[in-house]
From TrEMBL:
<keyword id="KW-0521">NADP</keyword>
<protein>
    <submittedName>
        <fullName>NAD(P)H-dependent oxidoreductase</fullName>
    </submittedName>
</protein>
<feature type="domain" description="Nitroreductase">
    <location>
        <begin position="7"/>
        <end position="185"/>
    </location>
</feature>
<dbReference type="InterPro" id="IPR000415">
    <property type="entry name" value="Nitroreductase-like"/>
</dbReference>
<dbReference type="GO" id="GO:0016491">
    <property type="term" value="F:oxidoreductase activity"/>
</dbReference>
<keyword id="KW-0560">Oxidoreductase</keyword>
<dbReference type="InterPro" id="IPR033878">
    <property type="entry name" value="NfsB-like"/>
</dbReference>
<keyword id="KW-0288">FMN</keyword>
<keyword id="KW-0285">Flavoprotein</keyword>
<dbReference type="InterPro" id="IPR029479">
    <property type="entry name" value="Nitroreductase"/>
</dbReference>
<comment type="similarity">
    <text>Belongs to the nitroreductase family.</text>
</comment>
<dbReference type="Pfam" id="PF00881">
    <property type="entry name" value="Nitroreductase"/>
</dbReference>
């Protein structure tokens, strides 16, 4: 697979083929890619909500400023963050490390205490922003994986998070919606698919020291 060719192929899809759906195999690949996304400290304070049901997506349309990708795509991915990061979250994370890697408590304790201290010194708003930064890492990862796999996507910030949280009942799960990524396959008549990419010359985008 030519990665650069696929990155040139991808674009923010404006019109999806409503008849063409992702296979379960492809969807599972996307879910695994999300779970393997790098996050700060590996803490994973983000979650992915996969919205398949057409009725549910239709109810989200108004809160998406009537952007049709939400209902036309094969699946709607909603990237969410935890509404807060607690000491219990951090302790559970380090228990998981200990169980999987068999790392000794002597080694883990100072790292755990340092992370607890750092998060405790942040306000709730700062912790939410910290988690939102991780959500953007996940978005970039998912878009790249989609491109490599020949799956179309459209990253979206233009929606009303509070309405999404209400309709998807995210508050009860301790989550807040941050980003959307409709995924599927482009419609043949999406004129945006034929547009040439507009990017800076590489020597203006990258500085080598």
């Amino acid at each position: 697979m030519d990665t650069i060719k696929q990155l040139k192929w991808r674009y923010a899809t404006k019109k999806f083929n409503v008849e063409k759906k992702l296979s379960e195999e492809k969807l599972n690949l996307i879910k695994q890619a999300f779970n393997l996304t790098a996050t700060s400290y590996g803490l994973q304070t983000i979650k992915l909500v996969v919205v398949k049901e057409q009725e549910t997506r239709q109810s989200l349309l108004k809160a998406s400023f009537n952007q049709k990708q939400v209902v036309e795509a094969s699946h709607l991915l909603v990237i969410c963050v935890q509404s807060d990061i607690t000491t219990t979250d951090i302790e559970n994370y380090y228990k998981n490390i200990k169980g999987i890697r068999q790392t000794s408590e002597t080694i883990l304790k100072p790292y755990r205490e340092s992370l607890v201290n750092m998060m405790s010194n942040k306000t709730i708003a700062e912790r939410l922003q910290w988690s939102a930064n991780q959500a953007y890492i996940a978005l970039g990862n998912l878009m790249t994986v989609c491109a490599v796999e020949g799956i179309d996507s459209c990253p979206m910030e233009g929606f009303i998070p509070q309405e999404y949280d209400r309709i998807l009942d995210l508050e009860k799960q301790g989550l807040k919606s941050v980003l959307l990524l409709p995924i599927g396959y482009r419609a043949d008549d999406d004129m945006f698919s034929t547009f040439k990419k507009v990017r800076r010359p590489l020597n203006e985008a990258v500085i080598e020291l």
